[in-house]
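Whiteboard transcription, Tuesday session. T.W. wrote the structure tokens on the left side:
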């Protein structure tokens, strides 16, 4: 159970890692974007639900599209 939690938390946190890295670089240039956390949350939720629905729609995981598997 702990390994499943750890795997899922790493998968979901990748979006926040990329967004926070980009926001840090943007703030160093002098621009402040307060909408970034909201955009990251909506993007992460949408991507997670899209992946969940795609995997559940397959009857066999060997039918998975290679581009969507990554």
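and on the right, the sequence the group agreed on:
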């Amino acid at each position: 159970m702990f390994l499943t939690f750890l795997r899922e938390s790493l998968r979901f946190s990748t979006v926040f890692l990329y967004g926070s890295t980009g926001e840090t670089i943007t703030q160093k240039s002098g621009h402040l974007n307060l909408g970034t956390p909201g955009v990251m949350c909506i993007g992460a939720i949408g991507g997670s639900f899209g992946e969940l629905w795609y995997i559940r729609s397959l009857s066999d995981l060997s039918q998975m599209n290679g581009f969507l598997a990554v």
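Someone added at the bottom: The helical segments are 2-28, 36-57, 66-69.
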